[in-house]
Write a structure and sequence with these properties.
- This protein is mainly β.
- It has a single domain, classed as Rieske [2Fe-2S] iron-sulphur domain (Rieske Iron-sulfur Protein, 3-layer Sandwich).
- It is about 5% helix and about 45% strand.
- It is built from one helix and eleven strands; from the N terminus they run ββββαβββββββ.
- The strands form three sheets. A four-stranded antiparallel beta sheet has the order 2-3-4-9. The protein has a four-stranded antiparallel beta sheet with strand order 5-6-7-8. It has a three-stranded antiparallel beta sheet with strand order 1-11-10, with no helix packed on it.
- The structure holds FE2/S2 (inorganic) cluster.
- The site of FE2/S2 (inorganic) cluster has 10 residues, from loops.
Length: about 120
């Protein structure tokens, strides 16, 4: 287990109830970076909001199918668990952030986003 005490910067993004199952919501990190928050069968994941292919907002223009989000602009896809691009024309991964659920709220560790 990763020790979150040293570098963690837990940020509350929304309430778990704010996102229906299969839904996506936009959130903002303290530095202003936009993220997309996904509810996959009651499990929450957070990635960059902006598609790595163009300027689409995945929270607005994305559709969840299982653990993949499809960008409606050109039908590229990402795995929301890892950020990995899984359908062309998307090739570059999205960043992801570790999620924690506490007191019915969705938190991310803003200090721990992968690059
Ligand atoms: Fe998302 Fe092109 S902008 S697939």
């Amino acid at each position: 287990e990763h020790d979150m005490s040293e570098t963690s910067e837990l940020v509350a993004l929304c309430a778990t109830d704010d996102i229906e199952q299969g839904g996506i919501r936009r959130g903002t990190l303290p530095d202003g970076h936009a993220v997309a928050i996904y509810n996959v069968d009651g499990e929450y994941f957070v990635t960059d909001d902006i598609c790595s292919h163009g300027e689409a907002s995945l929270s607005e223009d994305g559709m969840l199918e299982g653990h993949q989000v499809e960008c409606s602009w050109h039908f590229g896809r990402f795995d929301v668990r890892t950020g990995e691009a899984c359908a062309m024309p998307c090739e570059k991964a999205l960043r992801t952030w570790p999620v924690r659920i506490e007191d019915g709220r969705v938190f991310v560790d803003a200090g721990e986003g992968n690059a």
